[in-house]
Amino acid sequence: FSPQVDSANAGRVLASDAAVFLKKSGLTDLVLGKIWDLADTDGKGILSKQEFFVALRLVACAQNGLDVSLSSLNLPVPPPRFTDTSSPLLLSGTASSDVPWAVKLEDKAKYDAIFDSLNPVNGLLSGDKVKPVLLNSKLPVDILGRVWELSDIDRDGMLDRDEFAVAMFLVYCALEKEPVPMSLPAALVPPSKRKPVSVPGTMPLIPSSTSTKESHQSLPPVGILAAKTPLTQ
Fold first, then answer.
1. Exposed site from 33, 95, 177, 187, fewest CB < 10 Å?
2. Nearest 5°: phi and psi at 205?
3. Which residues, at least 6 apart from 201, have a Cβ–Cβ distance to it below 8 Å?
4. What pLDDT is attached to residue 65?
5. What's the maximum distance between 2 C-alpha atoms anywhere in the chain?
């Protein structure tokens, strides 16, 4: 237990202290609320040491794209990542530069072929060119909004070849009924986008609800666009 969350040193954490701490995970309030409900088993608004560790483990599950549920607690996940590194409790996972990229070579070749077929300009695809491909997956628009947010790693409103591969990877995961993570796991960050030194919290996080709403609205409802490019070759 760190003094950062156990200010009264009583071996328990109040909801207000825990909320401030858990927000540093970069997860949305909705997800954090779910984590709190699962960890605070007796609903008293206070977590015991054991319950607090359950909350931390659920944060790690959410950051790695797993369901926030008690059944995920038994799955192996890296330690949770938080943006504040001043506390010894805050562990960073493996240095992201050492993690192999989750996109396999043969998949990358497929994604590159789709990328090239969309006529990139200076090695970049605008949102307008990527949108029909995303919509053609028939995934819900809010999921597609999150896919775009996570894959536009440098936030320039365009996708380069590697970012497009991340978008396709996330779409195919979602089609296989795997949840799209709230923040991009280290293994999904393309090697070309990785910082030489891994600092917890440099992973792009999904923006606050206001900007998420705007990005969702910028994707028209499925059906407005006749998708010209089939997702599967």
1. 177
2. -110, 155
3. 24, 26, 81, 82, 83, 84, 85
4. 82
5. 61
Q: Are 149 and 183 in contact (CB under 8 A)?
A: no
Identity of the residue numbered 7: S
When the pLDDT of each residue in the chain is averaged and rounded to a whole number, the result is 78
The C-alpha atoms of residue 48 and residue 221 are separated, in whole angstroms, by 45
Two tokens, residue 83: 């943006």
Size of the chain, expressed as the number of residues it contains: 233
DSSP string, the chain: --TTT-TT-SSEEEHHHHHHHHHTT---HHHHHHHHHHH-TT-SSEEEHHHHHHHHHHHHHHHTT--SSGGGGGS--PPP--S--SSTT----S-GGGSPPSS-HHHHHHHHHHHHHT--BTTEEEHHHHHHHHHTTT--HHHHHHHHHHH-TT-SSEEEHHHHHHHHHHHHHHHTTPPPPSB--GGGS-GGG--SS--TT-S-BPPPHHHHHHHHHHSPPTTSS---S-S--
pLDDT digits (tens, 9 = 90+) for 153-183: 999 999 999 999 999 999 999 999 888 988 8
Q: Which domains does the chain have, with CATH numbers?
A: 12-72 (1.10.238.10), 105-193 (1.10.238.10)
Q: Measured at the alpha carbon of residue 22, what is the angle toward residues 179 and 173, in degrees to the nearest 5?
A: 10
Helix axes 161-175, 141-151, angle to 10 degrees: 150
Residue type, 58: L
